[in-house]
Amino acid sequence: MPLTHLEMETISPDPEVAIPDGLEGTWWVAHTRSRNEKILARELQQLDIFNYLPLKQKITQSRRTGRKSYSTVPVFAGYVFLNATETQRYRALSTNRVANMLFVAAQKQFVTQLRSVHRVIGTDTEFEQHNGIRVGEWVRVIGGPLEGVEGQVVKQLGKLRLAVNVDILGQSVLAEVSAPLLEAIDKPETMIESKRNVATHSGVSPQNRNQLS
Question: How far, in Å, CA of 80 to CA of 52, rounded?
Fold first, then answer.
C-alpha cells in the first residue's frame, strides 16, 4: 500500500533530521517478511520505536491497456532500519513481521551511510538500487528478457556477464547482464554425478571403476 501525500510530506529532506543524532537505542536492520516493510514501519511508529524506511516511486505500465500506475516502494526491499533499546527490539520482533534482526556493528558509519542514501533519494537525481553483486557470486535475474535465469557472475573484457552452466558438460553460456537486475542466491548443489554413479549407470562393474579415472 503506497504512502499518502501527507505521509510523504512528514519525511524531512534534511538527512540529519530524518536520521537524527542522540537516539537512545542501538541501530538494527530488520529483515522483514515478504511485503511487510511499510506495515512494520507503521507499527514501529505506533510502538514509539524510531525507524527509517527509504522509499522511491515506482512506475508500472499495463501491457494490456498501456496505462501507467504509480506506487511508493522501499528502496531496499525486505529491510527496515530501526534504532531500539533491547526492550524495544523485543517489541519489534513481537509484531511477527520480522524474519530476523541484524545487529549493526559500525553504528556511526551506518548513520553516515543512511544519511547519504537519504540525500540521494531526496533530490531529483535519477538513481537505481544496486545490490553489490560481486564476481563469483551465484545470482538470479529478476527483470528483463532473462528474468528467472540463474548462473554465476563472471567478468569478461571488462563487462559483467552471467555464466549459465551445464555442469555435466563442464561448459557454460555467457550472457551480458546489468548488475541492478541481479539478486544473490545460494550456490546450487553440483549436478555432476560422482564416478560411482556414472559407473553404475554405465553398467561398469565395481572392479573396473578405476578405469574411468
Answer: 6
Q: Please give the grid coordinates belonging to residue 161.
A: 556477464
Is the pTM here over 0.85, yes or no?
no
Query: Which of 125, 118, 112 is CA-nearest to residue 15?
Result: 118
Cell numbers of 40, please? Answer: 512494520
Map 86-135 to HEC letters. HHHHHHHHCCCCEEEEEECCCHHHHHHHHHHHHHHHCCCCCCCCCCCCCC
pLDDT tens sequence across 108-159:
999 999 999 999 988 878 787 766 778 889 998 888 888 889 999 998 777 8
Domains of the chain: 5-121 (3.30.70), 138-184 (2.30.30)
